[in-house]
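Appendix B.2, paired examples.
Example (i):
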Amino acid sequence: MKCPMMVPAVMVFLFVFSPVSSLRCNVCINSDSWDDCAKSQAPLTCEPDDSHCYRRMEKVVTEFFGQTFKSTTFAKGCATSDKCSTEAIDQCKSSSASGSQQIGIKDVKCDMACCQGNLCN
């Protein structure tokens, strides 16, 4: 006995209950270099709201009690579309000490790039 209604029912079941394919991005954070970040990176399945992978480098110069401190951060990870909007990337690239509300920050340099696709960063 054939059941012609069985095929559509199975198709609907598979569509509704199939696992959602999530974006995967490389994730790392390092204070030395992109090479060292890449050596320690690991693939991560992003949250459902994340639609982009990113790379971000930030250099900050601070001064406290006459002493100057420099820090650099290299990071990769998952991001939502608003964190990778043109405005957000432009804000990163145009960041400066004058725009900072934090006391002691003398200079900020930031560079950020986003991409869409598994492990594209």
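Example (ii):
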Amino acid sequence: MQNNQRLDRQKSYPARCLIGLLLLILISSCGRSVAETAVSTPTATPPQPTATATPTRTEVAAETAVSIPTLTPTPGYPIYTGTPLRPDQMGIQVHLRDEDQDVLFAHLTALGVGWVKVQISWKLYQPHPDAFHAERFAELDQFVQTANAYGIRVLLGVSKAPEWSRPTTELDGPPADFTLFETFMAYLANRYQGQVVAYELWNEPNLQREWNGRSLSAADLVELIRMGANGVRQYDADAVLISAAPATT
């Protein structure tokens, strides 16, 4: 019995070896395929280059020559050919300054005017009841003399009473006592008799800054002018007298 079994095993041995060999080959093939698949590294696909926009070339226009126009000289002012103007009917107002008066009057002569006006601030020329400002009067004396030398007539406008003569020191205005104005105008007429041709009695009385301290009254204004005229007439009966000119409002 045992011998038969041994004989059967011997007969089947080659067949088993063949089957084992086939299995080994099969397993080996599968393992290699799996291994190759596991370690296989895919080839990276290089990125496609991005197209770069080509800048558009801007053509620069050629500079255009600009023609420079020929300047035409402005014609001068037309020369007046009508009736000659009378210098004795034209004038200009100036302010006393520390300047060369000969130069000033040379300009006035070139303008062709026959009158010059100066506004006199009474309070500056008589700062105290019994005293006059010597330096200011010396300057005014020189001005009047120079005007006479050039043949230009002088008009003095007088206003602005001194503070000591007024009821208030705010702004400017007439004196409380109009006889004070009469006295001052008499002093001027005596000093400049025959040299000053005309006097304007006060200035812009319709403005508060020129008539402060008193209510605006036509009667008061007329009285002030009358008193000033009386003062001038005491020493210069030929002087031209002008009433205060109102301001435009």
